[in-house]
## 1
Amino acid sequence: MGFSKFSHLSQDEVLEKLSSGFPEGLSDSQVKQKQNEYGLNEIKDTATPWWKIFLRQSKSSFIYLLFAAGILSFLLGERVDATLIFLFIFINASIGFIQEYRSETAVQSLKKFTEGRAKVRRESKESLILSSDLVPGDVVILETGDIVPADIRLLDVSHFLVDETILTGESIQVTKKSQKLDQPISEPYKAENVVFKGTSILNGKAEGVVIATGRETEIGKISKFITETKRESAFQKNIDRISKFIIWLVIVTIFVVLGIHYFIDDSTRSFIDLIVFSIALTVGVIPEALPLVTTFSLSKGAKILAEQNVVVKRLTSVEDLGSIQVLCTDKTGTITENKLSVSDTYVINSDFGSLAFSGSIAIRDIYGKEVQPNNAFDLALIAALDEEEKNQLNAFHFINEIPFDPSRRRSSVLVEKDENQFLIVRGSPEEMILLDPSFSEDDRLSILQWLQQQGKLGRRTLAISMKKWEKGGEEYSVEDEETNIKISGIVSFSDQLKPTTRSVVEQANELGVRLVVLTGDDPIVAGAVAYDANITDNRENVITGENFDKLSLGEKRVELSRTNVYARVSPKQKYEIIQLLQEEYLVGFLGEGINDAPALKAANVSLVVESASDIAREASDIILLKSDLGTIIDGVIQGRKTFYNSLTYIRATLLSNFGNFFAVAFASLIIPYLPMLPVQLLLVNLLSDFPMFSISTDNVGKEELLRPKQYDSRDIIVIASILGVISTLFDFAMFGIFQRLGEAQLQTYWFIGSILSELVLLFSIRTKKIFFKASTRPSNTIIILSSFAFVTTIALPFTSIGQSWFHFAHPTWSNIGIILIVVLLDFIVTEIVKVVYFKYIDKD
């Protein structure tokens, strides 16, 4: 049974349903029986083992394709080729594993290692037991500072104050009571007589009976919910689409080429030679360095984020973060400081000093203790005092108090100073102005207008009354309290925006990232904060989770397109909102509480702060060690840089590989020998990919960072195919020029021309503009490695190693000059076509 089934029952009815007694608790035999029935009070939370982290580095169609090509090469005796392919796979997996394993280790180090304990009463005897040994029906004793060990229906409370932020998202502490509610409730924030596993006791003492343990607690249900939710990286989906296209292209082309060769009677080439040649062609067209390049890029991004106190758990989330179009966040602690402060005052009289001083005298925790109060209002009042006022508090002595009661909405304290007694009452202004006989109707109307103004600003208000107590003695009643109210004034409080919030929101807007607030907090407060932060242009444009549930599916989609603030939302409502947004957008979510875990699991990118619950951290991709939206925006920029560099590699390698693939494949149908030997094809791939690795270090222009972008496999394939055709035509030009020189000469010059073409095309495709008008210059690493590959390509055929190992002919400098002219013309035509394409066809 959930908390809603117990909250409206009387104490006797609750105990009867749980077969328990109060205050004596369960018997030992009942405990054993219930432990067998319900099991341990645990929510399983296991770290990801190292071998799983290693294996998930290979979950890619590209890796599967490379692995198959490596096995075929090995079976056909091409041991060197197979070794190179497997080396690529191993390096890629190792880099990804090292980064993600370090992150997993960092996550585990953030967890608390102490095992929780609980004070229980069994057979009328109090004892301290492991929280995991609790069973439904156990009577639990709770005190200030405790973490609630299970879901508990309260039976007896004294000055009991609870922080439920981690579960409900409500940023203000909650006063609990033991009386039954009038009717069943379904939302945790309405459960005034129930405390939930994982929440914190701020003040007071209580006794209650356990109503749910383990996965049957509210936290447990959320944990179960997130483990059943599966997610695939948007980055991985897009890469898989591209790889599937390449696989089908390769299969069709190879079968066509082999089929034609099979029907050509050519005794100079065996069918085995053609198979090896086809495998080499296949390896040549596959951008086998893509996993390595993207892993380098992602690792670089993760390293930069780590320097900004960000732990990246899932490496591909770096790039996914750059692609998000909507960022959903709770307001508390990310947009705001999560700390109340005095914003304004309505002063009626100052007979006893400032309102903050009068209100601070009523803080029970300051008397006889050396600890700071833990009530948010109390902390704000103390912070508003000057040093002299703080010293004056020591002159007052506590006598008695009547704690806060939700039904009368106020609390009071009787204190003494210099043999004079004073009664301080604090509470709801709307209630207290009705009890102050000194107010006229005009006075009350003026106060209500001020309260309305503060409410629109999302501020909470507290009326403070201080009056000299003439009756004397140490006892007073609620009736005495009501007849001795003389309001000194009203204080308004606000949870201030972080200093960087507005600038971060503005930057997010510039980057095309829409911010959406999902909070368990009050709708008026949420709307005011979002308006103040420029997240919404209307503070009243807020919808509650309850009202959202009443909408049809179509109405929900419309609401999500125009509303940026959702208040009083439950975990399941957050989850639903994320899923509906994902129909149109890539969504990131920043949370910290247990109530955020389902939404974190559903989001394309999930982020939490360091103080997040273990469940939230387990569901996350990225952990912020500093709770700041600005860090996320920095991560978005870094993700977009990673995306653009990966996209540059894909475009560059596909257009050059497509050109070589088609040229060599169909040239083999024209001449009676292979236009390039398998070992030469693989060397082309190795030397041209060498500088490609450095793309992860390239500089990215600001214009490429302004909008969220995703891999559009159609656009990538179209531009690669168009420019690949141009590359093919120039390859055929070289074929026509050098074919008459014989087999070895053609293979040598085609080898040189293929690599040089790929090297210069990299400098073209890295920008959509004419190469010399690019907003950023190539990185030094690209320039150095490209120069090294350029020199190696020209020099190798002159060496004995090139001629003996790779069967090159000795080239002439005049023919190399011709190659350079052809490569230059290829570059110029590619530049013209590229600029036209991006200006008139693909304008994104």
## 2
Amino acid sequence: MRRGLALLAALVLLVSCGTWGALAEENVQMGRTEPLYSQAKAGYTLPVYGKEAVRFETDLTLTVGDSAQVDFTAPEDGQYEIWLTYQNTTQSTLPTELIVRVDGELPFYELRRVKLNSLWVVETDEIPVDRYGNEIAPTPVSAQMEQTAGMTDSTARIDAPFLFELKAGSHTLTLDCQDSGTHLSAVTLKGPDILPAYAGEKAQGSAMIVIEGEDIYSRSKSSIRGAGEFNAVLTPYSIDHRVLNHLDGASFDTAGDTVTYAFKAEKAGWYNLDFHYRQGVKADFPVFFDLLIDGAMPSEAARQIHMDYSTAFTDMTVMYGSAPQTFYLSEGDHTLSLRINAALLTPVYEMIDRVLSEINTLSLEITRLSGGKADQYRSYNVREYIPDIEDRLNGWSRDCAAAVDYIKQFSSNGSGSAFSSLTLCADQLRRLAEKPEDLPRRLSELSTGSNSASRMLAQQLQDMANNDVAIDQIIFYQEGAQLPSRAGFMESAGKSVERFVTSFSSQDYAAGTGENGHLQVWMGRSRQYVELVQNLIDMQFTPQTGIHVDISLMPDANKLVLANAAGTAPDVVLSLQYVVPSYLNIRGALYDLTQFPDFGEVAQRFSSGLFIPYTLGDGVYAMPETVNFWVMFYRKDILDALSIQVPDSMEEVKLILPELQRRNMNFYFPTAGMSGMKVFPGTLPLILQSGGSIYADTVSDTTLDSDESLKGFREMTELFTVYNMPADVPSPGFYQQFRDGTLPIGIADLGTYNLLLNAAPELDSLWDIALFPGLEQEDGSVARWTTGGAETMAIMSQTEMPDEAWAFLKWWSSDEVQAEFGSLLQSTYGSEYIWPTANTNAFATLPLKSVHKKVIMDQMEWMTEAPWVLGTYMLERELSNAFISVVVDGVDARRALDTAVKRINRETYRKLEEFGYYKDGEMLKDFPTPTVDIVQKYIDDWNAAHPAGEEGQK
């Protein structure tokens, strides 16, 4: 009944205003050539198929890039669901993604991305425990079994399989594999399942079944996991150690997420159902979920059950009207599945998508009218050029207000506070409609500002996508059963005090607390990473080698020199910021890795250019652990709408700038996002691509003023002084303006990539990446050199266990361990935990989109680093100052670099004198500039001594 009223309300909402009513008539989303499913379905005329399912056997294996066809026959004219029987063939945390065509056509847009999820299970009943006695969520693996699922929306905005309108006769289903891989064994045509009406009876008896929220049988996403809190109302609970005691809401938060529990009913009968849960992310608004018993919904009443807002754990009995909803369980084993359902919000999602697109369109029209820079002293007759501007703005305002009214019916108190962004947006659009002639001067309020209507709508999409349901216990109970008691206020307060006192004696992963005789390793990352690494060591490295290792949280990387002097330094450091080794090796704090005979073999795991900052003389004192890649991001929808080809070089970038700039758009170069000092990742690429450098053979004099370096410096500064790229893009930076569409293309790094993947739902499938658009060379090739340093690993010089430390670094940096850790990190904590390993072979196995991974790995071949030596910090600073002098103050590039070079050389000689290389105006000994040739020599020597085919060759 509730579902029927909701659908009726949604229908009333859709037709209540003109723009929503027009949704089914045309697709206004930029870049889409197919209608949305809701639009296509509105035009169906054939009856829904209601007879026996028809199964077509097949035997197809698909990997990335493969395409296959399945021929099938529709028995009669009608609307059909298409179900696939499949088994994914990889252990990747990414689902298999397909583009699906029927008879060579895409009947609706959502078929561009159909997901086949794996089923993730834990193979052991034992809960792993770390060395401090804390429980760790077990790592799931992909179940090797066939699954059958109907093709449905990848974003789970639709809570049922798609319906396809088919004429009787032969048809062809074409499947293009975009990611992962699968084996397809059958295609089935069937009609929608008809759920029985609710017919529950009273739950008489005294039986009770308690299911712990963290005791997960299977899950649709590997990162759905149990977690532990020191909260006395949860069970189990321990004062001394962290125990898993609830389903982690941060992992069970996305529409379509499904978690399954296995349990046994000792007594057949009808049962009530209670949840002890917390849902604190949607203020005064419920999260909806479907309830399945033994893989099927028992009745229509089990669809879209709501969990109301609660910031603390609370009990809720599933209701049907004013009475508890009951479920029949036969004696024996059963499963209970919970699936987050966001279908009631689909009209709101589609409205926001549409209005965002239409606002961007209007913003372009206003920009063309004003020329991109509105004059505050000029009057704009906006109505003459855009006669319907007031209707558009008021229509969008009404749409937002109607959406808020629609969702209020689902709130327990009639509040719409979870959708306050929509309310604010409606008010702002209405105010803009009152004075449309001011819109050119108030464009920041419409689409470009941090508090614009567009930004509010995008934020609302992000808020809607987050559900965050944590579950402590699920209880089937009959009316005579006594439900478990919960800790009250006084008991909780008492245990909190006990926990507070106990925490002072807890030294988990603290530096300096390791055991004597164990290898001491400091890691510059959070506890989540440290726990996983320690667990891997205890399960693999120590049993294999007999070497015991204690991982600790690095207190402060800047204190490593002091710790080394005091004799309290660790043996090994991990995740050290990539420039720090240059400060440590000159002070003798790091061990020369070239002293190990197989260094040349291990070094081949990484891009050779990344070793440059770690090189001193003929020694190499650290190895890269992770990288920070720089690639070009672009909005596919906007570039397609403007008929702009993706540029491959800086010359091609310059050619597209007029087309972008006349629409108040632009290209983003990374120096624009660097507030204050412009660091090497922004200032060096074009210098390197021009054949320039920052030092000659020795570091005594910089070569920033060489012809090649000057050419690259001018290439960079002219992007801003001649070609009018934005010189300053303040926080929130490129990410937000990329979302807005004002910077639809630009160069950015891993951080932006992660944000767009996980925090920009409105851009799903509307953006892509490409190689850095470098400088074209005389032979026609394009140089794409960029920096790429992130974190590094090293051995401290005072270690008494150098061989054990080297064995550890070889194990940690190996292809297998880096690949396993990258997959483990994402499978445990989610897709946002990307591990950008510097090991190139391991990077190829990371659970990233295949098309993106290929681009990144191609760019990694152009990855290098600056030589970090005595005084390089001053060189980076003065190069930044020279850039600012040219771009901001209009100083000539040659003059700016000449000034910089004088300051750089003065500081360099001061540091050379400090470390004994220079005195009284004379060089006592040369300080050779680190180059890639040094590490390459060790690699070549190893390969020469170990020809291909011999044992030990990589």
## 3
Amino acid sequence: MRPKRMRYAIIIVAIMLVFGVVFYRLYDMQVVQAEDFQQAAESKTSRTLTLYGMRGSIFDSGMIPLAYDKRSFNVQFYRDPSRTGDADREEYTLSIIAAIDLIEKNGKKTITEFWLKRDEETGEWVFDTGTEVESYAARREQQWRDNFTVAKVPLEDLFDTLCSNYHIPDSLTEAEKLKVLSVWQQSRMYQYLSVPVTIAYDVDFGTAAEVESRSMELSGVTIAEASTRIYPKKSVAAHSIGYIAKISGEETMELYREKGYPNDAIVGMTGIEYSMEDQLSPYTEKRQGKRVVELNNRGKIIRELSYQAPTNGNDIVLTLNTQLQMVGEAALERTINGIASDQRKIMQTDSRWKDMNRTELRRYASLDQPVKTAETGAAVAIDPNNGEVLALVNYPTFDLSMFGTGTVDPDAWREVVQDSRNPMYNRAISTRDTPGSIFKLVTALGSLMEGKLTLTETISDRGKYKGTDTSYQPSCWIDSSQRYKHQDQTIIEGIKNSCNYFFYTIGQRLGSEGITKWAALMGLTSRTGIELPNESASFVGSQSFLYDADRGIDDQYTSKPIFAASMIKRALRRVGTDRGIDYDEETIDTATKSILDIVTESGNKDEWIPKIRSVLTDEMSIPTSYISRHMLVNEMFYYIQDLRWTANETIMAAIGQSITQVTPVAVSRYVAAVANGGTVYDLHLIDKIISPTGELVLQKQPVVVNQIYGADEYLVAIREGMREVTSVENDGTAASRFADYKSYKIAAKTGTAQRSKVDLENNSWLVTYAPYDDPQIVVVVYIQNGYAGARSAHTAISMITHYLDSKKLTDSITVPQTGRLTN
């Protein structure tokens, strides 16, 4: 029995020892180490992270990627809001310095935007908050000072104060200190959101791994998965695709915030990237994901509590044909360079040309003004049967790849924006310029449809056109010795010869209202509907576009009223000075507007004189004797006389001159209507929108804007005239440029629009479609200062040939029917 009791005693003692240890540990944890455990618990916080997917991709018509996101790594900095002590700031600063060294060692750059800069001239510290609006700049400076708690520190002491407050070592150079302060600025500006800020974009895997491995040393510095925008074709179709950048401007930022965007979101700025932002973006609230994590007191994630995956943006498929786009870009560059070379050669070696332009060249020399040669241009290719945009070419172009992370290398950006040719300007949709003879197709169809011309009527060139004015009598472009070629012309020969006399005649018959009406019906005076920002609207010259009394002076369509107003105001101020009267600007502005409005009140210029005198006496209180003595009525009459639309303006508008201004895309739509038999389509660059799961969100359909009925036989004649433009047999105006071309029958119309008295500065327009008897493609080429319309032929021929050859090859490929294999 004794051994048994002994065993029980040992067991009891053991149990008591175990419970003793447990009670001791409980006492130690709850009493002795209570404060330590409380601090540890407090050092662990949970945070909800908003997750974003990837931006949608952009594809061409053959599903070739033009823009897409790839996963990348960003370096971020997060300051724990509870760590605000002096020692904490010093620790974070040392961490930032180490992170910058690490990132730069691996070939990347950190953010460098800091609103305190040295003035380049004085070397003094100045604020540069990124806005020229004084009220915005003042507000931003105050916000900056409040965030850094340096509201009352003098400007000249700010830099040294911040270096001291944030314990930036004196051993660093000023440039190195500014990098550190740039990170602190970013952190302080977003401190109220309590979110990490990105300090370096798109670092490589090695850099990311090193940051993670040194996490204990790099307090507040973490790696975040992100995405980088890839533009694999670089400069190809850059203006159509567009680019991304960080949100800028307070009003814009607020609009995006309302949609759920974070402050550091990267958004589309131009092109499809901008116009389709809502479809492409991963930032909208419905596409956001959530991740709840637990952090330690160094801002490091120690575990994940929950996760909801984000959704990517939708994909956009365009109607663009990348290969055709590339052919067009290369051809347009060659064409422009070739024209410029010829222009320089003419200026250097052609003595006859120098003699003909001697007076104007002397004037240019006195103004130190060079003769402008071909430097820029655009080409548009569309399918005439549905309005699909096949290619949208601009020259010069620019490289999209520099925008991939939303931040741009300053040197690369400077090179682009300092280029005098303005490479980022989308000339294909935004440039409005005088069309010249390509407009004659409007005058032709309008005259036929309105009964002002028949298909069999003939018109001969009689030299000077005397139908509208006895003082100004324009004539055709052809030399008088060759005028016999422009005799007995029907509409077909009129178009083939591009005879100005012919179109003066029918233009006067059709009248200004008729010309404007048919330009509108053919889709030339409204925007085309292309899904790109900043498309300009074309307009046809008329009184309302020459001067519109219902619009403000600065809101007129051309510069003529603005120039006239400036001269009138100058004269009125001169009168005030002479009479010792200080006219206020409102009085001068009102009188100026009243004088300008006279041109729309009466077509009889004799009635203007008493009206002008009345404005001067009633609104400016100028005595009649003073008005007469200084001939003020005559002076004002001179300034406004060109603002009244006349019959001469009408006949010039009929041939695409006067103040008419058109865009290349609008011209392509109008030519397509001629080619396809009278259907005016809206243009569309988007084919379809596809969700991240592959579902069809939208399939674009052709949109008919207008259908011209009863014009079939007239359009047949117009198209025949266009065919003969390229015909050697018919001696067309562009025949020499198409003489050796045999692949496809191309119909065309040239346009040489005068820009100055020097012919080398003329615009070059060429509109084409092919094949002539089965239109499948329309190509419009526009070259500013391109000398002559036919000189653009190389670009049109190259694009048409490539496209039709490709279609022929595609159509010849037969896909075998699928079925069950049998032995």
## 4
Amino acid sequence: MKNIVIGVLAHVDSGKTTLSESMLYKCKSIRKLGRVDNGDTALDTNEIEKSRGITVFSKQAKLVYKNTNIYLLDTPGHIDFSAEMERTLSVLDYAILVISGIDGIQHHTETLWNLLQTYKIPTIIFVNKMDANIADKNKLINELKSNFSTSCIDFTTLNFSVMEEISITDESVMESFLETETISDSNIAHLINQRKVFPCIFGSALKEQGVEELLSILDSYTIQPEYPQQFGAKVYKIGHDEQGGRITYLKITGGNLKPKDSVTLIDKNGEKSIEKINQIRLYTGEKFSSEQCAESGTICAVTGLTKTYSGQGIGIEHNLEQKLSQPIFTYKVLILDKTDAFTTLSKFRILEQEDPQLNVIWNEQLSEIHVSLMGEIQLEVLKHIFAQRFSIEIDFDQGSVVYKETIRNTVEGVGHFEPLRHYAEVHLLLEKIKQGSGLIFDTICSEDRLDKNWQRLILTHLTEKTHLGVLTGSPITDIKITLVSGKSHIKHTDGGDFRQATYRAVRQGLMQAESVLLEPWYDFTITVSSENIGRVMTDIQKMSGNFDAPVVNGDISVLKGSVPVIEINNYRQDFINFTRGKGRMTCVFKGYFECHNTAQVIREIGYNPENDIENSADSVFCSHGSATVVKWYDVKDNMHLESFLKEKTEDLTPLITQNQVREYRSFLEQDKELLKIFENTYGKIKTDRYTVFNTPSKTETKTTTNYKTYEQDYLLVDGYNIIFAWDDLKNLAQKNLDAARHNLINTLCNYQGFKKCEVILVFDAYKVKGNTGSIEKYHNITIVYTKEAETADMYIEKTTKNLAKNYRVRVATSDNLEQIIILGHGAMRLSARNFKQEVDEIEKAIREIIE
């Protein structure tokens, strides 16, 4: 007999579990036909599955029909549990896609179809609920052909016209059909296996209509894969039985497996271990039978393995690269009884093994547990599991969406770790890559510079940690991190040194980069009466969403588009109210895109990367026999290896060109007011003014570096922040604040004359009662005094957001939070220290003019 593994997939409430139940009953695998609404189906055995009438956990069952052993996998249909469904796709030979004859193709159905295409799984379509009066077979088959494939063919009766329709999917089959006017079962089976034909059966699972025809297709038109003699297996799920024993669910893909066999396991870090199989089980729901041998093509569960994980390959199989649905909500766990946090965390770790998408985060500083999930129904499931399985009462806070961060530009991150008798230095290249790629790690470091074993260790350290961004402390994504250089010490380096250096190099790179905050977006389909479509379109625009033109069909309008998850998440109840429950809205996760309200999110989260001691960007150097912490912005001045990236002189400290000097001379000669400021700042010009302002001769030999210019540059300066960050102005301000302010204004006037950029100097006046704020032009710069209740930070954030869309904008400030926010707007940050260096360089050039 042949063995085939079949997965049953569907949008929620399409009748998927009812179909599985009916197939089991037809094959006499169960004696009684259960019903979902009665809570007595063979496969939905969990209490929450029974109460809600939905499948939460994938279940397996074996049924025999004629000459075929069918291993059936019933998967969750609700979008909250789509990761559980996706994990089964890697072990399927065929899929049954169940579609409701009442609702037709729904949004999640399209997602499932696309996944089946991605995994190249041959698919049979069962259109359910055809006993309903409103089910229209002709309309449904046309919808399938239009939305899925023209090769969706009604297999209810294989007559001549159906054979003809099958034949046009393959040229050689068509030639044979034209000669014989028939198609062999073998040819049909191969067309289905090659995804050239998608059989469609119309029926009612509840009334057992069309189920026999479906089973007949599985027996007649499926092909068992060819399996090698060597042992291999794919792990698709981890679970625990009622006694707490660990169970590994797998598909045998080569040879066979027996109790007491030893298997070699390779973990995610490449380390090998050998474990022994205790028991082999074949499950149907909660019931199982013990087997003495599992042959190729079998779905089974084994006990005795402790180091397995979902997606793992055993024997000849390689580990799978699974791109599962990403959790988009995060919640803080609230422990309601007297159980301590560490005990609760240990239970979450058990569940995390079973469901890798349950991302559990332990915040050591706050002693808090956070979990990332797909939606609210998962919260109910977790509360139920903890109560029933672990006897722990938990709840969750309101939660928020999971943000992520990426970068716009390429940077080199350096990490150095050198306490006494320790040593490691790591240089990493951080590059922006294609959206949705996640994190990619690579090395191009020469083995002459750093031994291969150390390089492997660095790559391991990169993969083992969730690296956090510097805007909100959210995980980073869509970045390629490449090891470009590194250094060890022949005596003093151990593995932990490279861990520290690697983590610090990533953070140091992120602190330099132009970071971008990302948020999750949904694709939505909204169906409402035409009288409500205007309201819906207005609402979506307010949510910063976008959409195509609505499709109008009589009194019904359909709107499709995309919208930030956080905006539409609380919209459902309002939508139900104004459509009086008649509107329909489906949302499917689209991906992560740039956040629509970056500044607001950064401000609300209030993350300061420099205070995150667990994710430090600073390095540790050895100075005079003791460890010295060097701030991230000074690391490149102290690092032991050369930079991989050549410094770009157009960034924070551009050098002065002779052309700028000439322009400035001419500018001063024409503007007597600026000349007065010049002489007040730097003293009287001692030499002949004509000589000073004259165009320099071609014999000048001062070396220069090209400086990139833009059509229009803006520099925004946080006035008081700079005054109290520069020592000379700070000392002056302690005696006379007005004098310090006037000194800074004159300095910026001279600066603008050289740089020819738009300078906006902002001073706080937010504490002044009744102040309405003012903007004044002082010679060649603009000075802003903020209004009451508006800080300089707020004004700069607002102005940066508007200007950065079209111009090159830099902001001079040492306010860490403000630097992070303006980076999120696409501007460049210029620390007070770097700005001082730039101003000093210009002043040096100015003094050369007068001396």
